[in-house]
């Protein structure tokens, strides 16, 4: 979807926009289901990147210590607990710049993925940059989706991080898609961006060929010690508008209500679900920040008449459209 179209939608009166997004949601997701995902940091802290919002960067004093890769047995315990708790997708994140084929840590990750994939859940990983070979091996090991957010617009990205480029992000996404993995790709609100930056971010995401399987919308949780520690919070209505625009721009994707949910009331979350969100991170923690308790999530879903979506571990990556270029236009 082009920027001009997104801008026109964004500028609609609030209820007009929500009506549009709700219609798209009901056409593509009529079942009143919510995907429950659990995110586990399997390697925390000590990252060499300088992402200005991140508690795990070794460049900032945030109180997050660098840790080794978790033991496989501990990861399996957490994955089994997530499954028993109702999660249908288990996402494993590691604070690395990227992974490289032939290294001990990548072999360890592949072994972990193989075991987790046997539990019947969808398996997602977020390990930083991927090359072609690494993407193929992750897919073969059992990864169903790879998370790699673009965070913000191409123009604003250089204000957020200097140790890699926006194009590096796109390259990893392309490698994951070429390997047959679905892509989970979204952004973060509250990085000092303008409304236009948010719209350009959604433009890029919607122009992926194929479009992402899921689009997480995060609200910045300011971390003491990071350059964005003093950033102001995101207006609730801006979050809902972004959810609605993501639903319209990427109609067949799961739109995931992600970081920042601890600051949302039940009523606010209900409005996000109505606007088009149909996936949440479920559990007590998101990498290094807190997340609403599982019991509270289930209670809210029951009030709203929503049910957990069943897992689809054998899901196929969306097909590319033959008449569209593989790479989004950034000009």
Briefly say what this structure is:
This protein has eleven helices and twelve strands.
Average pLDDT confidence is 89
Count the E strands: 12
Q: Point out poorly predicted stretches.
A: 285-291
CATH topology name: TIM Barrel
Description:
There is one protein chain. The chain is an alpha/beta fold and about 325 residues long. It has one domain: Aldolase class I (TIM Barrel, Alpha-Beta Barrel), CATH 3.20.20. Helix content is about 35%, strand content about 15%. It has eleven helices and twelve strands. The protein has helices spanning about 5-10, 15-30, 70-85, 105-115, 130-140, 155, 165-180, 195-205, 235-250, 265-275, 295-305, and strands spanning about 35-45, 90-95, 120-125, 145, 180-185, 185-190, 215-220, 255, 280, 285, 290, 305-310. The strands form two sheets. Strands 1, 2, 3, 4, 5, 6, 7, 8, 9 and 12 form a ten-stranded parallel β-sheet that branches. The two termini are about 15 Å apart.
